[in-house]
Amino acid sequence: MTKRINIGGVTVGGGAPVRVQSMTTTPTVDVRSTVEQIVRLAEAGCEIVRVAVRDEADARAIRTLRDHSPVPIVADIHFSADLAVLAVENGADKIRINPGNIGGEAAVRRVAECVRSHGIPVRVGANTGSIEQEYLQKYGRTARALVESALLDVSRLEKYGVEDIVISVKASSVPVTVEAYRMLAKRTNYPLHLGVTEAGTAENGIVKSSIGIGALLLDNIGDTIRVSLTDDPLEEVIAAKRILRACGLEKDYVEVISCPTCGRCEWDCMGLARRVERAVFGIRKPLKIAVMGCVVNGPGEARDCDIGIAGGRGKCVLFRRGEAVQTVRAEDAETVFLSAVHACLEENGRSRLEEDTKEDD
User: pTM here?
Assistant: First the structure.
């Protein structure tokens, strides 16, 4: 089990739940826009947010951000010990630095003493663009080089008494990323921050991130994750939540299953599945819903679902735990089914379907 650390009241490692992170895309000094984005991310399930610190104005803005943010703030700093110290002094809950480019031994010591005195953790690590020259020459752009480079950064901080450290070893290659984290997990008990760097746009990046992060989580490796996408960071959070759910690491949510459909499907199964999934995404209740294309196998395949629907020629069947409970005309199916789902959720007082389903695709 990894060491447990505290990031602004959010525990990471040591058996705590795997935490979801993202990074803002707004200029940090634009406090209003940045807070708005942080709030949206938090509402989607983000638990820790990182902001870029490019200059003194960004570093000082962290004070106001921290006062209005619903989640801990991590300051991302490169090349400047001054900015790292300023960010910490302005309330950053954690900093992300590269000790190798922060300005030399004296700078590392200064930053280390600052974070230690403020009692906040540090994330260090390597990606394939920041491997220490020594290891790059010795091992090339490999998993071994990433791990050795990251552990060198750790030792630079440990030298000055920093003990709350999170490590990452990211590559744009999924196999290299997975190999590096597996190797690192055997050599340290510090919490690990998972991600596939430079994964690309949502279309490709979600696939790469799901494979890489998911494989590691299923190996019980990883304490916090970020899905890195060239897209709205909200998409990162949504993808991260779905990865956790697919890995069985989040139980308190509404799961929607649906079949791929085929030539037997004679109603808008795809459209209803999308609308239901969107409507229930943020609801925290262990409920399982099925939207199936036809009645041939639908109820049987979804026997373990709390509620489901399957279509046929001109009609649809609503079922509970695989047993048919109501038959309705196809044209009425969506209205009746959403009402039934709403009733299931209302039993726990957590439904927002009435509002969310007003808007069509």
Answer: 0.87
